[in-house]
Amino acid sequence: MSGKNRTVADIMAVCQEMFEDLNFTYARKWKDAKPGRKVVGFLPVYSPIEMIHAAGCLPLGIFGGGDQMEVIHGDAYYQSYICRIPRSTIELGVTNRLDFVDGMIFPFVCDVIRNLSGIWKLMFPNVWSKFFDTPQNYDKSIGGTYYVQELKELKEGLEAMTGRKISDADIQRSIGLYNENRRLIREVYAFRAKQPWLAPTSEVYVLMRAGLMMDVEEHNQMLKDYMAAAAKEDRPKRDNVRISIYGSFCEQPPLNLIKSIEMAGCYVVDDDYSLNNRFLMVDVPTSGDPLEALATTYIENSVETSCKYVPDGKVKGQFHVDAVKACGAEGVIYATPSFCDPALLDRPMVCNKLSEAGIPYIAFKYAENSGQMQPIREQAGTFADSIKLWS
Amino acid sequence: MSKPEAIKEPSMEMQKAMIARNYDAITSKQETGRKVSSTFVPGNLNELLMCFDIVNNLPEINAIQAGMRKASGGYIMEAEKSGHSEDVCTYVKADIGQMSKGNIAPNGKPYPNPDVLMLSYTGCYTFMKWFELLREEYKCPTLMLHVPYEGDGHSTKNMRDYIVKQLKEVVIPGLEQVSGVKFDIDRLRQYLRNSAKAEDNLVWCLEQGKVKPSPIDAYFGGVYYIGPIFTAFRGTEDAVTYYEMLRKEVQGRIENHQGPLTPEGTYFNDQKYRLIVEGPPNWTNFREFWKMFYDEGAIVVASSYTKVGGLYDQGFRHDPDNPLESLADYCLGCYTNLNLPTRVDLLAKYVEEYEADGLLINSIKSCNSFSAGQLMIMKEVERRTGRPGAFIETDLVDPRYFSAANVKNRLESYFQMIEQKRRGGGSKTVAA
């Protein structure tokens, strides 16, 4: 069902089901619907999923096991001081929940996800897998040239896996669909920033997560439907503070953590959750060489996040300051997964920049299976109160 | 009672003098006018820095020095007090904490601020953030050299071209600007010629671990053997001389059927267990850790840590005929830039070629580049070689994570398991 009659509850029911479904029923059904279809998983933070789509495959966002899955086997692969997403991803693999997945892309995030790509090769030698290293040099003629060639190699890998050629027109068509997806997502984010009481983040989050597991055209319609339906909701505006959440770009928090922050008196008006669908901040050109278009957009117009190098030290963290100002947030919660090198190494730099800009912040750690929310609620509530009283 | 002074061989004394001279060169920057860079061990471009008369300072080595002098624990806590997470790399925190404690070099003089941060980003994510953090402190130019990871188990032409282009268009112009010295490729060629000579002798020494009894310890002794090549001396005449000297010492021990010299001054000849070790050592309790091995008769015949600054034993040599390409290949081939299947292949090969009893992993809390996936590595190497593996956990320079009793217990259990295996018993793992 789609269109103006769809309610927020209808949409959320679909998204919630997909979000909780660790058997990936939607993707399995999609694959079974036509012979020869293939599914390619991708991990956080950024993969050019247009390429997967152009290969005729379903891009499937893999975000670990969340708080609903007990990790039994995965813990045997990792020491106690390593974050949870790789161990729950392995759990998904060894319990055959991903047995229908034909390929996996492990983009550059950190050394843990990087090494997980090698574990995957050892554990699942018959599944095509690719470590995808994006450039850290942002000069178009250096990093851009390198990236175009990496995209060509990704394309060749997908072609070998599917047995079909990917034309420029295929990629351009996929870029067009994902441009629309990104535009609509930006609209949802803007809608939430303007009227956060109508679009709580506990909803927006699962709407985005579901989008990274479904056909992009279906998601585009769903985004339109959600905005139309949410605008009609009769939801009271509360005396909440407006906050942004950063540091949560890879391992995702449990949904209850997001709800707890909201219940503590915070409207979340910006975040870096499941960032893949907002990593490119502008439309990718749909004319000319599509690989160059993807590369140039990445080089010139992608978000600043901890897995990227910031060449100019003077502007390190400024991206976050600007984002806070753009969405009208009154403070930042820098929430990072435990043992997350990128976010935790970045934390002093980003938070110092926030301080310099007079933006209040708090920081805490979580795991995807954190269960005790009372301390989170207390911290977030105290933070909200302090903003109301003293900012 | 203070610990007795470690007994050292002539090559160790020579290296000590080289290191002291380098620290003097760093700390006398104001008087000499020489420029100083900070850079990393993997992907170290020492020959290139020498072309610009730049002195090479390595924060990783400074952290190790602090660890061995028992100073790192205080530095780390200082960094944690100022907002750095307890979860992240202790090299970084030792470095940052040291700054707030006066930033004193091992020669007792303060480290000067670097003139350039040479961010050779090879095989370790933390490097990138470490120098972003230092950049905030020092406000000096930072030259990023991004070395792509060999995710598919090999390098590609695209990766090599990318590195060479960065060298030509970012690194070399940047170093020219910092130093005021024009780049001379023939000077680089000469240094690379020296590097290759030293590398030949290093490889010869490392390969003598195949001899029984082994005249080297490829882990605890190995960190001395790799010192000059991995740090500020690759490409120098001193390094060439050092490796000639080291080779003579190893040759002498082979002729006398001697093992390596322990810090207590005795030759370790009674070698019961031959091990391959994966992962860096612990530095805060280095001698205590080493003693646990030789007291039990365990000699390390090959290790992955001695490959962290280059896999010379697999055939790579710096090539004066292709200088920049050779630097690119060197960076790409550093151990932690290799994917896990390649690391498994290498370690399994070492177990076989060095006729080892098994693989011991020293898993380092600080270092996800090494540590993430090591349990899988152990399982795979055990499966392929049929020889037992073991797993211990320590840290680089955080003394809070060195539990001597735990490490000793696990090692003793492992050696018992090897005995059992020799008597025909089954193989199993000593789990962490």
UniProtKB/TrEMBL annotation, chain B:
Q: Which InterPro entries match?
A: Benzoyl_CoA_Rdtase_B (IPR011955), FldB/FldC_alpha/beta (IPR010327)
Which chain regions cross the lipid bilayer?
Answer: none
Please provide an example of a Pfam family that matches this protein in its UniProt record.
HGD-D
Tell whether Iron-sulfur is among the UniProt keywords: yes
Q: Which GO terms describe its molecular function?
A: iron-sulfur cluster binding; metal ion binding
Q: Which UniProt keywords apply?
A: Iron, Iron-sulfur, Metal-binding
- The answer, when asked if Cell division is one of the entry's keywords, is no
Q: Which family does it belong to?
A: Belongs to the FldB/FldC dehydratase alpha/beta subunit family.
The protein's matches in PANTHER family, at most eight in alphabetical order, are given as: 2-HYDROXYGLUTARYL-COA DEHYDRATASE, D-COMPONENT-RELATED (PTHR30548), SUBUNIT OF OXYGEN-SENSITIVE 2-HYDROXYISOCAPROYL-COA DEHYDRATASE (PTHR30548:SF4)
Q: What is this protein called?
A: Benzoyl-CoA reductase subunit B
Task: Record the organism.
Answer: Paramagnetospirillum caucaseum
